[in-house]
Design goal:
Elements lengths: L3 E5 L4 H12 L4 E5 L4 H9 L7 E3 L5 E3 L3 H19 L1
Parallel strand pairs: 1-2
Antiparallel strand pairs: 1-3, 3-4
Length: 87
Amino acid sequence: MRNITVYSKPGCVQCRATARGFAKAGVAIDIIDVSTDPTAAAMLTDWGYLSVPVIVTPDGQHWAGHRPDRITAAARAAAQTHAQLSV
């Protein structure tokens, strides 16, 4: 199962808050630092994002900014997927 990906950069308060939100929900995430990954930075720009964090879920949904509501929904979806795979 793929993890949720958080595109981030150093010193980003919303990025840290987003990572903490997923950790609190018990959801594993992959963090990609766009300041050191020009390919990732270009992809986000191509998608129309001008700031981080940008969050991408395994099912392809994505959004920008610290969104506790979206973190909760993504955590629920991840838990359901994990439960289905465990059966």
